[in-house]
Amino acid sequence: MSNLNTVEIKAFVPARDFELSKRFYEAMGFRVAFSDADIAYLHAGDCSFLLQNFYVEALAGNFMMHLLVEDADAWHAHLVEIDLPGRFPGTRVIPPQDQPWGMRDFAVVDPSGVLWRIAHNLPKPREALA
Fold this sequence. Notes:
By secondary structure, the protein is of the alpha/beta class.
């Protein structure tokens, strides 16, 4: 079964305005490693996705990405500090909160309506560690 090893999985994220979306993600902290007229490869650290020059409103409005980070509060502070919604009208950054599934996260809505949840794991309660 060693030939069945996996290397990576990437989502194809839709973009209504491809150039605007690339600028949005660069402002967030992603780097565009490759781009042509149809697709852009973006990454931050070891996390990556493919931004596609393709848009269907129903798809974008129901598309969700999850980014696990070391410190969601630091990511949120960065996006607020650079005024992401002010620079990209129609986008949103929603404050962080602890979730019952053991993560602290916040939401970002991109220029195409794609929802991102950016989170870090919360410490496990002491009784769960026993």
